[in-house]
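From the methods appendix. Each design record in this collection lists the discretized structure first, followed by the designed amino acid sequence. Records were kept in a plain field format so they could be parsed without special tools. The example shown here is representative of the layout used throughout.

RECORD:
C-ALPHA CELLS (595 positions):
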C-alpha cells in the first residue's frame, strides 16, 4: 500500500473533498438538483467494454431523513467498448492503455468528480505486465479466454497438478493468470528485460486500474508511490494464492517461476487501497483523474454480492462466458467434479473470508456474437431470440461452442466446437435455438456439479441437512447481458427443472462493486465526516435476511419440462459433447513468437 497504517488513519481524519464541496453548495455542478445523498462510483471493466455507473447511497443523508431503506440507486452511466485483438487462432488480447482511456471517458461523462468512494470490478485472470518506472504496458493484456498457454499446461506432472489443486482449489489451465505470466516471461523480450531490471510488475485489470488511476496523495497533499494491489477474489484466480492463508504461496511461486516482488499486495474486498484525491477544484491538473478506491471484487464475486447471496444461494451470469457461483459460507468445499473452489469475498481486512464453488463456461453469449459476426446468420443479437421462438425445438441439432476448449466441469483443452444432428430439414431457427440451448446445458452441468459437491461435503462431515447450502437449491438468480433473453431464461428453467429469477436491475456486477465500496468507506470512518448519526451501510445491511429481495420487480421463469424431456435432452447434449474431444489435432497449432 502507498502509505503506512498510521498515515492511513491520519488521512481518515482529514476533511474530504466532497465534504468541502457540499459546504459550498452542489448546485454549481448538478444544476437545480441539490445533492442530499453520498455518491459512489462503480467501474465495471469487462471483457468487451468498460462501464462507469454513478450511484447515490439511500438511507443515509447529509441531512437527517427517516424512513428510507439503505440501498444504492443508479443515477447515471457511461460505457465504451474496446478492441478484441486476435493475433492467432485461440489468442485474445486487449490494449491496456485503451481500457484506461475508456475509463477516463466514462468517468468524465458521468461527472465522476466529488464522489465519496469508488468500487472496481473487473474481468478476472486477464493479465497485464508493465514497467514500474515508465508505467507503460510491456505487452497487450492476455485475456482470460486465451488458449495460447496449452503447451505450458501440458508440462506439469500429476503430482504438481494435485499440489496446485489442493492449495488453490483450481486445476492448472490456460484459463488462469499464472500460465499467462509464464508465457510472457518466456516469449516477450520486453518482459524479460523488465524482469532483469527489477521493474516488472504483473497484475489483473484491477491492479492495472489502481496503479494507473488510484489517488496518490497523503493527508498533507504530498504525492505517494504508485499503489500495486489486488483483492483476495482476484488473487484467488492467479494459481499462486493459497486459499486458506490468503497469501502468495512460495511453493506455487517456485513451480511457475514467478517472483513475489512482481505481484501485487493482496488486500480485502472492502477497504481503502488508494491515497486521497484532494479537491479537484484546486488541483493544478484539471484533466487528471484520481480515484479513491474503497472496494475491489472480481466480476463474478461482485455479481454474487449484488445478488446478496448468502450461504447456499446460487447465481449464474450470462455474459461473454457463463459463470455460476454458489456461496458456501466460511467452509472451503473442494470439488471432485471439476468445479472451482474460490474465495467469494472478504468484506474488510478484519473480516473472515467467505468461499464459493464456481463453474466457468468459456463461451456463453460469445456464441451469439459468433452467429452474427462470423457466420452472418443474423444481423443483430436480438434476431437470435426471434428466430429461436419460431420453432419449438432444435430439430435434433446440437451445438457445442468449444471454440478454444471446454472449461468446468470438463477442462478439456483439446476440445473444439461442433454442430451435430444436421438434416435437410434443419434451418437457421434450429441453429439459433441450439445456440441458446448450448448456453443453458453448459450452465446446467456446472450447477448440478456444485449441488453434488455440497451434498457430499455435508455427508462427509456428518452434518444434518438444514439448508440449501448442503445440496439442492430450488431457485437460480441470474444476471448479465444475455439474461434479458426471455427465451434463453425459459430454456434454462426447463433444462434445470427449476425456477430462474431475473432481477429488475440486471447490472448486479457494478452494483456489487458499489456495495463493496460503501462497506469499505464505512469501515474507514468516511461517513463520520458528514456528521450524520445514522449507522451507514454495513455488511449486515447488504447480506442480512431483511435484504434478500432488494431488487423489486424481478421476473420468475418456472420450469415447464418433464423429467423424461430433461433426460432426453441431456443424452443428446452428452453425445455431442463427446464428439468435441481431440479435435484440436485438426486445427491450427499455436506457435511461439517473439515480440
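DESIGN:
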Amino acid at each position: 500500500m502507498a502509505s503506512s497504517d498510521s498515515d492511513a488513519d491520519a488521512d481518515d481524519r482529514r476533511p474530504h473533498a466532497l465534504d468541502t464541496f457540499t459546504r459550498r453548495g452542489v448546485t454549481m455542478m448538478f444544476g437545480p438538483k441539490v445533492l442530499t445523498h453520498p455518491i459512489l462510483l462503480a467501474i465495471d471493466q469487462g471483457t468487451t467494454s468498460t462501464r462507469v455507473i454513478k450511484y447515490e447511497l439511500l438511507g443515509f443523508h447529509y441531512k437527517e431523513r427517516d424512513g428510507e431503506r439503505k440501498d444504492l440507486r443508479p443515477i447515471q452511466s457511461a460505457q465504451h467498448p474496446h478492441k478484441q485483438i486476435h493475433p492467432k487462432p485461440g489468442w485474445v488480447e486487449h490494449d491496456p492503455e485503451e481500457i484506461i482511456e475508456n475509463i477516463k471517458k466514462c468517468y468524465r461523462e458521468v461527472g465522476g468528480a466529488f464522489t465519496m468512494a469508488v468500487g472496481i470490478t473487473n474481468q478476472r485472470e486477464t493479465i497485464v505486465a508493465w514497467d514500474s518506472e515508465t508505467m507503460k504496458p510491456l505487452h497487450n493484456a492476455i485475456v482470460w479466454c486465451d488458449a495460447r498457454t496449452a503447451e505450458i499446461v501440458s508440462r506439469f506432472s500429476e503430482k504438481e497438478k494435485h499440489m496446485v489443486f489442493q492449495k488453490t482449489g483450481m486445476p492448472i489451465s490456460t484459463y488462469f493468470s499464472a500460465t499467462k505470466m509464464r508465457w510472457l516471461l518466456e516469449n516477450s523480450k520486453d518482459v524479460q528485460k523488465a524482469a532483469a531490471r527489477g521493474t516488472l510488475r504483473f497484475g489483473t485489470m484491477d491492479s492495472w486500474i489502481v496503479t494507473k488511476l488510484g489517488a496518490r496523495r497523503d493527508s498533507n497533499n504530498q504525492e505517494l508511490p504508485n499503489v500495486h494491489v489486488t483483492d483476495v477474489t482476484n488473487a484467488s484466480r492467479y494459481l499462486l494464492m493459497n486459499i486458506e492463508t490468503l497469501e502468495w504461496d512460495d511453493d506455487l511461486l517456485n513451480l511457475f517461476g514467478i517472483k513475489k516482488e512482481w505481484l501485487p499486495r493482496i488486500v480485502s474486498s472492502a477497504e481503502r487501497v488508494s491515497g486521497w484525491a484532494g479537491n479537484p477544484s484546486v488541483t493544478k491538473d484539471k484533466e487528471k483523474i484520481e480515484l479513491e478506491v474503497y472496494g475491489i471484487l472480481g466480476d463474478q464475486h461482485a455479481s454474487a454480492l449484488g445478488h446478496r447471496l448468502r450461504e447456499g444461494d446460487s447465481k449464474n451470469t450470462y455474459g461473454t462466458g457463463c459463470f455460476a457461483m454458489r456461496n458456501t459460507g466460511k467452509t472451503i468445499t473442494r470439488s471432485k467434479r471439476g468445479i472451482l473452489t474460490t474465495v467469494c469475498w472478504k468484506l474488510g481486512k478484519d473480516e473472515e473470508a467467505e468461499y464459493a464453488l464456481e463453474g466457468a463456461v468459456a463461451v456463453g453469449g460469445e456464441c451469439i456474437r459468433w452467429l452474427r459476426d462470423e457466420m452472418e446468420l443474423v444481423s443483430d443479437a436480438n434476431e437470435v431470440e426471434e428466430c429461436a421462438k419460431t420453432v419449438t425445438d432444435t430439430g435434433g441439432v446440437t451445438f457445442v461452442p468449444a471454440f478454444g476448449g471446454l472449461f468446468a466441469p470438463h477442462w478439456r483443452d483439446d476440445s473444439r466446437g461442433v454442430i451435430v444432428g444436421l438434416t435437410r430439414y434443419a434451418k437457421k431457427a434450429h441453429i439459433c435455438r441450439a445456440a441458446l440451448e448450448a448456453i443453458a446445458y453448459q450452465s446446467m452441468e456446472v450447477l448440478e456439479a456444485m449441488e453434488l459437491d455440497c451434498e457430499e461435503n455435508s455427508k462427509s462431515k456428518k452434518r444434518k441437512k438444514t439448508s440449501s447450502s448442503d445440496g439442492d437449491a430450488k431457485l437460480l438468480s441470474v444476471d448479465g447481458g444475455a439474461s434479458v433473453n426471455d427465451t434463453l431464461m425459459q430454456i434454462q428453467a426447463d433444462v434445470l427443472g427449476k425456477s430462474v429469477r431475473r432481477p429488475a436491475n440486471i447490472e448486479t456486477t457494478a452494483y456489487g462493486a458499489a456495495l463493496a465500496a460503501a462497506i469499505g468507506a464505512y469501515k474507514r470512518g468516511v461517513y463520520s465526516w458528514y456528521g450524520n448519526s445514522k449507522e451507514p451501510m454495513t455488511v449486515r445491511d447488504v447480506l442480512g435476511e431483511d435484504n434478500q429481495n432488494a431488487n423489486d420487480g424481478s421476473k420468475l421463469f418456472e420450469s415447464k419440462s418433464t423429467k423424461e424431456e430433461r433426460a432426453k435432452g441431456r443424452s443428446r447434449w452428452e453425445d455431442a459433447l463427446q464428439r468435441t474431444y481431440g479435435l484440436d489435432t485438426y486445427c491450427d497449432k499455436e506457435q511461439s513468437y517473439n515480440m
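APPENDIX NOTE: The mean pLDDT is 84.
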